[in-house]
């Protein structure tokens, strides 16, 4: 009897957790064999008839009904339709949806953010008190900017700066603007020219302002030509073709590929190589880094891009934030190391017949992976 | 004032977006989506600025008869083709990308082949870049060459024919050695991006203000 009850096709519903309301999660259990589809219908409190509420995917046995109104009770019914027959599962009590004030699944992110933010802020404060005690290692790619712009000027060629294919909301694009300012100052000092084709019009307008300020700060506001910062296209390979064309026609002496790139990275870098330009690349797109390493003279690897402003300005508060993130990296390194050791011990213990450590290890992994959703 | 107002806007916006990540309740929950919608609207308008910039550039090139100025004729042909055909298609059907429309025909027969051609160039560029990167001049380059040869041969049927264990070794190089290094860089990028975002929100990083 118990076995028969356990195998009966059934349905349950609950308020979708960690959401802004307006959604109920419906689950069906013990889906009968041969079911072709499961139709979901719901009865609103006070109504007399069930209304269609969509289909429940059979492989999942779960769906979110996002068309409900908060505070109103709903009763759900699932209809599993097989070839010649159908099965009905009904709920007993009404369920209501409501918004939550805190997304519990993101607790790990919050903990990390508070810890990381505190470390960074602490180091910023320490840096303000003791600016002499901060060291930042040499970044050859940034040191080479002077050489690249100088060489380009000597050859009587312009400098080409490509800010990647992401919008202004990308951290890599913002970091590229910092480097653009430095390049702009050097270009203005040497009396050269910088060409700046853009994929995103918002980045274009920001880059125009950045270069204008850089030229003004270098004492050459008259040398800035707004028309050298222009828009190309919003098509990935159209942009690559356009920049390649500029490289082949204008023959820049130095090329800066700074920002977030996709598959076009190697097309750009190889064309730059073919014209003999000195190339300084930098990207936070980890998948494109190998291409830049293979084809460019200097590369800013991921996080080095974000350190550019601190490296250039040597401003204590910026250096402090770099040191703070370095400390977070050390902590993470130790956490990974401890995780590897504990995981290995748990694996050995499990093989020896003691699964407790592995259960603890899995719980820890589950907790840490929560924020990745 | 010119700098303080944008700094305040950045701080308030950044703080609200962080809060909305943890609080799904209204009015915070939908804010992230709302701001993305606002960004799209702004982007729509700035595209007009972009088009203006592009048209001016080509007009100037044609006027000055700069080298390759006739490419600008190709640009204007494509530009007006898209504009006119796009408007006609929108007048006829709500979605110009619907198969059967004249706009979609142009998209399918001109733009997609052109994009595919550019993408196909990548194969040749990979070959030339690999040739330079894999020259065994140093110990590191030699290790790179060995790893690349194992991965490349291990990924094709010929590799299996040569040695049945080669695909397994290639997968190990790819999933363990490569992945370890890649994840290290990814952690660095993520931490760097968070630190930079904090600097921006707190007004320490001000380059974008210019």
Give me the secondary-structure topology:
The complex is a heterodimer of chains A (373) and B (210).
Chain A: H1 2-6, E1 10-15, E2 24-29, E3 37-44, E4 51-56, E5 62-65, E6 74-81, E7 86-90, H2 107-129, H3 140-154, E8 159-164, H4 171-190, E9 194-198, H5 201-217, E10 229-231, H6 236-250, E11 254-260, H7 265-274, E12 278-283, H8 289-295, E13 298-301, H9 303-306, H10 308-313, H11 316-351, H12 356-369
Parallel strand pairs in A: 8-9, 8-11, 9-10, 11-12, 12-13
Antiparallel strand pairs in A: 1-2, 2-5, 3-4, 3-6, 6-7
Chain B: H1 4-22, H2 31-64, H3 71-92, H4 102-133, H5 139-154, H6 157-162, H7 166-201
Which two protein chains have the largest interface (Cβ within 8 Å of the partner's Cβ), and how many residues from each? A-B, 84 and 61 residues
Number of helices of chain B: 7
Q: What is the third-level CATH name, the topology of the domain at 137-306 in chain A?
A: Rossmann fold
Q: pLDDT under 50 segments of chain B (min length 5)?
A: none
Can you give a write-up of this model?
- The complex is a heterodimer of chains A (373) and B (210).
- Chain A is built from twelve helices and 13 strands.
- Chain A has 373 residues and is an alpha/beta fold.
- Chain A is elongated and about 85 Å long.
- Chain B is an all-alpha fold and 210 residues long.
- Among the domains of chain B are: 1-66; 134-210, no CATH class.
- Chain B has helices spanning 4-22, 31-64, 71-92, 102-133, 139-154, 157-162, 166-201.
- Chains A and B meet through helix 2, helix 4, helix 5, helix 6 and helix 7 of A and helix 1, helix 2, helix 4 and helix 7 of B.
Task: Give a brief description.
Chain A is α/β, with parallel strands linked by helices. Among the domains of chain A are: 89 residues, Immunoglobulin-like (Sandwich); 170 residues, Rossmann fold (3-Layer(aba) Sandwich), CATH 3.40.50. In chain A, 46% of the residues lie in helices and 20% in strands.
């Amino acid at each position: 009897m118990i076995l028969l009850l356990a195998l009966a096709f059934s349905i349950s519903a609950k308020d979708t957790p960690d959401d802004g309301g307006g959604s109920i999660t419906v689950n069906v259990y013990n889906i009968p064999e041969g079911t072709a589809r499961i139709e979901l219908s719901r009865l609103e409190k006070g109504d007399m008839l069930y209304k269609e509420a969509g289909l429940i995917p059979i492989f999942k046995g779960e769906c979110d009904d996002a068309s409900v109104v908060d505070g109103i009770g709903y009763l759900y019914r699932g209809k599993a339709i097989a070839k010649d027959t159908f099965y009905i599962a009904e709920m007993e009590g009404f369920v209501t949806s409501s918004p939550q004030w805190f997304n519990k699944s993101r607790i790990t992110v919050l903990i990390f953010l508070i810890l990381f933010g505190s470390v960074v802020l602490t180091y910023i404060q320490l840096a303000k008190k003791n600016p002499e005690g901060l060291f930042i290692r040499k970044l050859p790619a940034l040191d080479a900017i002077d050489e690249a712009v100088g060489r380009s000027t000597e050859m009587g060629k312009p400098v080409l700066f490509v800010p990647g294919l992401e919008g202004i909301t990308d951290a890599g694009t913002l970091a590229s603007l910092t480097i653009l300012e430095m390049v702009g100052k050097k270009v203005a000092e040497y009396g050269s020219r910088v060409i700046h084709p853009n994929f995103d019009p918002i980045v274009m307008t920001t880059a125009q302002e950045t270069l204008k300020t850089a030229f003004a700060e270098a004492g050459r506001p008259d040398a800035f030509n707004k028309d050298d910062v222009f828009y190309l296209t919003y098509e990935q390979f159209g942009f690559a073709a356009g920049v390649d064309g500029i490289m082949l026609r204008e023959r820049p002496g130095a090329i800066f590929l700074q920002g977030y790139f996709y598959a076009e990275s190697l097309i750009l870098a190889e064309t730059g190589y073919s014209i003999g330009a000195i190339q300084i690349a930098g990207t936070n797109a980890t998948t494109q880094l190998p291409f830049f390493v293979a084809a460019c003279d200097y590369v800013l690897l991921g996080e080095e891009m974000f350190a550019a402003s601190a490296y250039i300005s040597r401003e204590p508060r910026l250096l402090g934030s770099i040191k703070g993130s370095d400390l977070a990296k050390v902590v993470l390194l130790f956490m990974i190391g401890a995780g590897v050791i504990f995981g290995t011990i748990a694996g050995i213990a499990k093989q020896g017949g003691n699964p407790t450590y592995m259960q603890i290890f899995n719980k820890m992994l589950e907790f840490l992976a929560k924020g990745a959703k | 004032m010119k700098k303080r107002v944008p700094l305040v806007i950045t701080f308030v916006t950044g703080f609200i977006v962080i809060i909305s990540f943890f609080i799904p309740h209204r009015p915070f929950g939908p804010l992230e989506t709302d701001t993305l919608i606002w960004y799209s609207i702004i982007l729509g308008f700035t595209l007009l600025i972009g088009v203006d910039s592009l048209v001016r550039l080509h007009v100037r090139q044609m006027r000055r008869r700069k080298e390759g100025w006739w490419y600008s004729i190709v640009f204007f042909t494509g530009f007006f083709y898209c504009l006119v055909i796009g408007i006609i298609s929108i007048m006829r059907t709500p979605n110009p990308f619907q198969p059967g429309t004249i706009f979609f025909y142009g998209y399918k027969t001109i733009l997609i082949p052109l994009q595919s051609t550019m993408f196909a160039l990548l194969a040749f560029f990979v070959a030339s870049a690999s040739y330079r990167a894999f020259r065994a001049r140093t110990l590191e380059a030699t290790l790179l060459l060995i790893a690349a040869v194992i991965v490349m041969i291990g990924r094709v049927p010929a590799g299996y024919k040569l040695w049945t264990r080669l695909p397994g070794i290639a997968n190990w190089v790819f999933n363990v050695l490569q992945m370890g290094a890649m994840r290290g860089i990814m952690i660095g990028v993520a931490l760097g991006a968070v630190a930079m975002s904090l600097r921006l929100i707190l007004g320490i990083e001000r380059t974008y203000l210019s």
